[in-house]
């Protein structure tokens, strides 16, 4: 069974045609306007994936990651090329695919199970485990149209991971839920890998999956940019993102506005009862310049808007590019029944950090540390020495007292 193929992709392309607002009539709108502009979501993809491999799929927005999964799941057909799949496929794609919104979570468990060929008896045998992993037993009889996006994805994952498939397709499953759920999800992926399943998982946060991937696929502008082991692929991904930033976002390398931040927000609560929005995030020394020097004071400016019936914590996490947390800071935010706008300035004294490339997360949690909202990988910033002097090994300069004792 070693090296048995699970998926063979040859010359795969997916072309879309932009809608022409001048076309009239229902039937005309069903036909692609081939005389108008078109673009490729995927172009000439060739790839072979072995049985039992876990493949991470990464790349910038619009690279074609989700389109590839949709074709493999037979949600959308390719424009050209071929795909051979050897085995039963189970998938979690974008919100809205797979569940009936008017049915409860409980009813959707049985519906999804039956669609994947399970008998009612088989579904009942898995029911307790599915509900336990879902984590919201009080909502299992609620119509899923009332679920948050995080709850929706958690239930979908809890069902799919309990279906005996040969190939699993996951789109951004590790971007939802709290740390406990994410740990469970990773444990379940490890389990099905051990059983010989093939897993393809799309993510915008390579750090969350690199440690269990056999290989990673880096897509950019509909093409394969790189394919190889996880570490090499992440290095190429960082180079690509840096190139994109240098070409397109020179003035915003170390700051993001509300529109940018809203794209990376993940929320697991009913926003009508409480909400939190980052409106500005910046890293700078004395002013908003492109470079950030570690031998000067480093300032983090965090602007936000919120309302909440309870106190909560804002948690800042600074991590390396492999996802290892270097330091975290908790800030208590007092409850407010009305919408408030506020700002934090966090100062890191000069020479705290050595030269290093870092990323930032901001998490919003209850006082008992249940994560409700998260902003992952907000910004990638290089802390460098102003005079180009290399510091000692390690990330931080920790204050240490040394005493020489004579015998």
Put simply, the count of helices is 8
Hey, roughly how much beta strand do the residues contain? 35-45%
Mean pLDDT: 84
The CATH topology of the largest domain is given as Rossmann fold
- The CATH level-2 architecture of the largest domain is identified as 3-Layer(aba) Sandwich
Q: Report Rg.
A: 24 Å
Task: Report on the architecture of this protein.
The chain has 407 residues and is of the alpha+beta class. The protein has two domains: 5-243, Rossmann fold (3-Layer(aba) Sandwich), CATH 3.40.50; 255-384, Coagulation Factor XIII, Chain A, domain 1. Helices cover 22% and strands 35% of the residues. It is built from eight helices and 20 strands. It has helices spanning 26-30, 65-72, 105-115, 120-134, 149-160, 179-194, 230-248, 258-262, and strands spanning 5-17, 38-50, 54-58, 80-85, 89-92, 167-171, 198-202, 215-220, 223-228, 255-257, 265-267, 275-284, 292-293, 298-308, 312-320, 325-333, 336-348, 356-365, 371-375, 380-384. The strands form four sheets. Strands 11, 13, 15, 16, 18, 19 and 20 form a seven-stranded mixed sheet that branches. Helix 3 (105-115) packs across helix 4 (120-134) and helix 3 packs across helix 5 (149-160). The longest helix has 19 residues, at 230-248. It is globular and about 70 Å long. The N and C termini lie far apart (67 Å). Mean pLDDT is 84; it is low at 24-30 and 248-252.
Summary tags:
Rossmann fold, alpha+beta, 6-stranded mixed β-sheet, 407 residues, 7-stranded mixed β-sheet, globular
């Amino acid at each position: 069974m070693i090296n048995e193929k699970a998926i063979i992709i040859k010359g795969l392309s997916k072309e879309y045609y932009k809608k022409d607002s001048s076309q009239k009539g229902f039937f005309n709108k069903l036909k692609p306007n081939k005389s108008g502009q078109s673009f490729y979501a995927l172009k000439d993809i060739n790839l072979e994936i072995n049985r039992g491999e876990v493949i991470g799929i990464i790349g910038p927005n619009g690279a074609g990651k989700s389109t590839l999964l949709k074709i493999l799941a037979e949600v959308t057909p390719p424009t050209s090329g071929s795909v051979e799949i050897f085995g039963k496929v189970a998938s979690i794609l974008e919100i809205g695919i797979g569940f009936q919104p008017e049915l409860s979570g409980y009813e959707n468990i049985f519906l999804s199970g039956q669609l994947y060929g399970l008998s009612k008896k088989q579904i009942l045998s898995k029911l307790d485990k599915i509900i336990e992993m879902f984590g919201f037993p009080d909502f299992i009889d609620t119509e899923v149209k009332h679920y948050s996006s995080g709850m929706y994805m958690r239930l979908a994952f809890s069902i799919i991971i309990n279906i005996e498939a040969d190939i699993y397709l996951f789109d951004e499953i590790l971007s939802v839920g709290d740390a406990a759920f994410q740990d469970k999800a990773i444990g379940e992926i490890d389990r099905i890998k051990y059983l010989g399943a093939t897993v393809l998982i799309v993510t915008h946060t390579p750090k969350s999956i690199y440690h269990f991937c056999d290989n990673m696929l880096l897509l950019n502008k509909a093409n394969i940019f790189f394919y190889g082991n996880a570490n090499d692929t992440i290095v190429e991904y960082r180079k690509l993102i840096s190139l994109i930033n240098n070409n397109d976002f020179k003035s915003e390398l170390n700051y993001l506005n509300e529109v940018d931040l809203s794209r990376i927000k993940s929320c697991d609560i009913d926003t009508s009862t409480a909400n939190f929005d980052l409106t500005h995030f910046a890293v700078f020394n004395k002013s908003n310049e492109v470079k950030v020097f570690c031998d000067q004071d480093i300032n983090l400016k965090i602007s936000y808007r919120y309302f909440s019936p309870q106190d909560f914590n804002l948690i800042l996490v600074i991590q390396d590019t492999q996802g290892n947390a270097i330091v975290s800071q908790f800030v208590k935010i007092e409850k407010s029944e009305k919408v408030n706008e506020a700002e934090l300035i966090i100062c890191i004294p000069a020479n705290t950090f050595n030269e290093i490339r870092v990323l930032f997360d901001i998490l919003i949690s209850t006082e008992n540390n249940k994560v409700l909202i998260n902003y992952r990988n907000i910004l990638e910033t290089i802390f460098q020495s102003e005079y180009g002097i290399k510091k000692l090994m390690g990330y931080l300069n920790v204050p240490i007292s040394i005493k020489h004792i004579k015998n």
